[in-house]
Amino acid sequence: MSTNKLDQLYRSVIMEHYKHPKNKGVLENGNVTIDMNNPTCGDVIRLTMNVEDDIVKDVNFEGEGCSISMASASMMTQMIKGMTTEEAVKLAHSFSDMMLGKDLDESIELDDLEALSGVAQFPARIKCATLSWKAMEKGVSGESQ
Amino acid sequence: MLSKDIRNHFPILDQEINGHPLVYLDSAATSQKPVQVIETLDRYYRFDNSNVHRGVHTLGNRATDGYEGAREKVRKFINAKSTQEVIFMRGTTTAINTVAQSYGRANVSEGDEIVITHMEHHSNIIPWQQLAKETGAVLKYIDLEEDGTLSLDKVRETITDKTKIVSIMYVSNVLGTMNPIEEITKIAHQHGAVMCVDAAQAAPHLKIDVQNLDCDFLAFSGHKMCGPTGIGVLYGKKDLLNNMEPIEFGGEMIDFVGLYESTWKELPWKFEGGTPIIAGAIGLGAAIDFLEEIGLDAIEQHEHELAGYAMDKMSEIDGLTIYGPRDPDKRAGLVTFNLDDVHPHDVATVLDMNGIAVRAGHHCAQPLMKWLQVSSTARASFYLYNTTDDVDRLVEGLRTTKEYFNDVY
């Protein structure tokens, strides 16, 4: 088996986030709710955020999906908490670039997210990784429901 | 079981994927194509390509003969009374939409009922949802038994004198269930409803006889039965089709065109507006020749044995859940499953790294996923070119998947 390639996809930090997701649940005091799904595979996510003065004060996610989509959501919530909406959107764009295999601005701190860089080699799985980020971008840009 | 030599007709199967010989187990999504079909398409474009039913030149005649010859092959394949009852379309989806928009709009009104089941593919749900919304009709679902089959008692309870259309799949693309279409058709007719059959998963695998079924409409796609993509068939009873209006208007389907009024050609051409899918139809004809030479009964038997073998072997894997009827006599050649808590996408990715192609997702059947109380599943589907070796590779791949995720979890 091409275990090496697989190991690049399923890095231990991803499996750790999948097994023990951060910020899982629904925010009671959230003022932004976004539901998004991936119609080609059935993954669903609900993002609840508390955005005040253009700062993401708190964020939770709930959903069903594969290890990649759920781990990505967990990492995303961990990273954007406390960011300004502008910073969060900028990070989402950097993440999107990483999925497309583009070179990244080195000034951006990716932390755990770096583990998802292997997804770029699995084109069928890129949408799994980007689902929660798309939901977040929609939320902070004021397109909430 | 069929001979393993059948694989040799399918050049695509002879390749490595991620360093392993390809095991293709996604034929319910689309089948692979035998060299006979590929060469027929190649020959058509090299030597015979022309438009049909017009012009007097030799190529035009060859193309027309090929196209109409394919229609006769389809007629025989499903045992329709006449080629007038065989309409070429893009696929099952277009065919069912045509029935909904043409027959449905003319015959369904407020308070009437349309009856389908919980196991349908989206292509046999949404056309009826739309029709119900437009007309004010009620869309009713026949509930499934616990093992994923239909009971005729529930069919009888759901279909009433208000029912105008019953539309049900012949074989389920997820559960593998083979539905009792002949009996359901009788019940529909007792209440004056027409019976429409989604045969997308039946036509590739078993002998269809529309006269025996007595169904009013039947739809299937060429690409799932060794033919090209972009060609499918709508069968309809002549009396019904004669009274239906086309839904696509333009070239090829007209008789006389005036400034403000036009008239239509006779059947089947009035439903084939625009330049038809000539190469696709001829390719479908070649696929039918290929399947009939092997024999649909032999193909059905082969898949049946393969699915039985797969269910036995897969059941030995701890934590593997199989959906649909357990009785092999009640199911077709596919196995839908989940492995422990491993998400089907993750299963499919690990299998792909082992050269094994399976489908993962909701299989265009979201209401059925809801009924099964899962968000998605994985599916291995078999066809005439698959062997017990393929099943062994799948089982080995699933064991590897399980170990892999046990390790990394």
From TrEMBL, chain A:
| Database matches in SUPFAM superfamilies | SufE/NifU
Question: What PANTHER family does UniProt report for this protein, alphabetically?
Answer: IRON-SULFUR CLUSTER ASSEMBLY ENZYME NIFU HOMOLOG
Which residues are listed as membrane-spanning? none
Domain annotation NIF system FeS cluster assembly NifU N-terminal: ranges:
10-128
Q: What is this protein called?
A: Iron-sulfur cluster assembly scaffold protein NifU
Specify the superkingdom.
Bacteria
Q: Which organism is it from?
A: Sporosarcina ureae
UniProtKB/TrEMBL annotation, chain B:
What CDD domains does UniProt report for this protein, alphabetically?
A: SufS_like
Domain of life of the organism encoding this protein: Bacteria
Record field: catalytic activity: (sulfur carrier)-H + L-cysteine = (sulfur carrier)-SH + L-alanine
Q: Which UniProt keywords apply?
A: Pyridoxal phosphate, Transferase
Location of the Aminotransferase class V domain: 23-394
Identify the EC number(s): 2.8.1.7
Signal peptide boundaries: none
What are the required cofactors? pyridoxal 5'-phosphate
- Cite the PANTHER family for this sequence: CYSTEINE DESULFURASE, CYSTEINE DESULFURASE 1, CHLOROPLASTIC
Task: Tell me, in a sentence or two, what this protein's role is.
Answer: Catalyzes the removal of elemental sulfur and selenium atoms from L-cysteine, L-cystine, L-selenocysteine, and L-selenocystine to produce L-alanine.
UniProt similarity note: Belongs to the class-V pyridoxal-phosphate-dependent aminotransferase family. Csd subfamily.
- What is the official name of this protein in its record? Cysteine desulfurase
What is the species listed in this Swiss-Prot or TrEMBL entry? Sporosarcina ureae
Q: What is the lineage of its organism?
A: Bacteria, Bacillati, Bacillota, Bacilli, Bacillales
